[in-house]
Amino acid sequence: MHLRSFRPDDLPTLHAIDQACFPPGISYTRWELAGFIGRHNSLTWVAEAAGAIAGFLVAHREPRDILHIVTIDVLEKWRRQRVGSQLMEAAERWARRRHLRLISLETAEHNYPAHAFYVARGYQKVREIKGYYADGATAWVLIKELSRSAAAGPAPQNT
């Protein structure tokens, strides 16, 4: 498996993966996903395995030295094979290299596997947002504070 930067022809596949990973009301429309990927200060890492896209992560650098994870999606058959971990590690490395102070994300309150994944990576629940998702589901905001002195290896270029 290797990581690379997003290419415009990836969009249909990434949208299909997002639709497979999340139910309606949580998954993004193609236009929403394209908007997040195309925003100024956004980055998208794509994980390829066995000649196909296995997952991806979209993040946005926000003011106040924050990297916001918009979405991380890994196809079911690639879960528990470190695809998600490698995507998160790439985003965290990128943020550390730029001396950002924290990473934030939201996840549905009932997505227990995601909660366990993030907590194991050092993320902490800081608040809940009722009715966050279009289907009315509550989200938890999680953050991970970064050491400003830690910097590690290369990451994909900004897209």
Features:
single chain; alpha+beta; Aminopeptidase
Walk me through the structure:
There is one protein chain. With about 160 residues, this protein is an alpha+beta fold. It has a single domain (about 1-145), classed as Aminopeptidase, CATH 3.40.630. Helix content is about 30%, strand content about 35%. The chain has 4 helices and 7 strands. The protein has a 7-stranded mixed beta sheet with strand order 1-2-3-4-5-7-6, with helices on both faces. Strand 2 and strand 3 (about 50-60) form a beta hairpin. The two termini are about 20 Å apart. About 30% of the residues are buried. The model is unreliable at about 150-155 (pLDDT under 50).
The separation of the N and C termini measures: 20 Å
Any idea what the radius of gyration is? Answer: 15 Å
Task: Compute the average pLDDT.
Answer: 90
Helix segment tally: 4
Overall domain count = 1
The tally of beta strands, per DSSP, is: 7
The profile of the biggest β sheet is: 7 strands, mixed
Low-confidence residue ranges: 149-155
Shape: globular
| Topology-level CATH name | Aminopeptidase
Question: Topology of this structure?
Answer:
Elements: E1 2-5, H1 11-21, H2 30-38, E2 42-49, E3 52-62, E4 66-74, H3 83-97, E5 102-108, H4 112-120, E6 124-129, E7 139-145
Parallel strand pairs: 4-5
Antiparallel strand pairs: 1-2, 2-3, 3-4, 5-7, 6-7
